Predict the structure of Protein kinase domain-containing protein.
Amino acid sequence: MQSCPSPRTTGDFETKLNELDEIEPPDYEVSSVRRKKFQSYLEESFERNTVSGPVHLSSTELEEQKNFLMLSSLFHKLSFSGKASDFSSTANGAITSSETPQDVSTKTCSLEKMARFLFGVELNLKYKILLKRKVKLLLDEGLENLLLEPCNDEKHGTRIISLENIFYFQQKQNCVTVSLKGEEKLSLSFLKPEDASYFYHSLLRLLSQNYKTELDQDEPRLAEWLTGNWKNKPLVQKRFLNHDIILLQKIGQGTFGKVKLAFSVRRRKFVAVKKIYKEKLLKSYQTKTGVEKLLTECQVMMKLRHPNILKLYELYDDSKLNCFYLVMEYACRGPIMRLQDNRNVEPLKEDILRRIIFQVIQALCYMHSQGITHNDLKPDNILMCNDHSVKIGDFGESSYFSKSEKSKDWPTRLQGTPAMCAPELCLTSDKCPLTNFQYRYAPDVWSLGATTFFLATGRLPFEGQNLFEIYEFICVKPLVFPQRPRLSSNLQSFIRQAMTKEPPARPTIFELQEHPWLQTYTN
């Protein structure tokens, strides 16, 4: 087993970190103690400010170097509850399976069987003897519930069945019968016998007594999850982190790296791992550099804990591959919409839209109460889970205002996505007098209105031939709703209030959540 060296510095702060680790046993979640540790470490890192560089480096480059060194040290400190991180591939013999290579290569692993139902499998559902309808069967990301989602049937909503409510199940060819507590029986008729077998064995694994006893153990039993193969390749050859996170396959690509689907043995759930290459990070020369974005994202996500905000579980620094790992909550359905699909996407129905916006507002109310602004709210950054709950992600553009900064003026600067940008951010600071601290949260409200407009109509609220024209239209052009689809008067009122051009007249997020359009959903 190879491990990444973690540089340790002596001093009172290091002693304090060790004392915290001894007091609190690792729970493999970002606890309140670890979040406080994160904040205190950041503050001390900024105060230390002892980074020096060659004479030929400019002040901007020195600042970038200082941020990067602080970020690297931060990852070392917080990796695996403050301990050094281990990175290895089982191909080097660090972990072996009890099965022979021949057995492993011919057996599909339980993780691949479960992952198949993350994305849904269509089948025929029979219940109450003669009733039958077509549904999509899904597992939630936490592997705790079954979801039966109707196909082209608006009369029935998605049914959520807890795995704890399953009393008995059996398979016969392409049919799996599930008996629930309360004497209800569901007959799931799969289109392929292979899917029926996968589902049966997934339930067998999730409901087995061994699996339940594993949940109460402090140490993960990694080897038991490494039997079989993933996508026709032995799972024992996959890379894993700290005997916990098994990296499975690539599911996305970003500016500084890639996103991988992974499985956390300790948490017993699928997670997303963002792999960020340090070399690409240092080569970014944007308004806000990649190092600053990553530092901000970690700072904000470690502080926030809300059911509608994407969780950050762990941070890892891999010096061997020269990259960072962020282990995050996984939202299987991904973004609710993408701005790049402008005018080529079907608008959401109003009831569905109301449910989504209500959850987003709850998250924004919590963020603003914590002194945090998102600054890049858009459909691409609102992710949906299998149970139709939504999570706000991508906090790279966020701003955090401490208690001492809450009464200071707010310097305006252009940030976020241009089409979702508030009018006060489209103007230069010398032309925008509204820099008072009480309006610093107003851009998030505008972006929420623009996002709601896009989800309801399938098009951007303001379009232009270039960025300057878009900014000009945002500042001076009145908001016009298309004739199709026709929006209700309450929904139009909600969007108009959120997209009030003058920040003093724009409602706060707390005032907006009392709008009549949302009260319909609340009631």
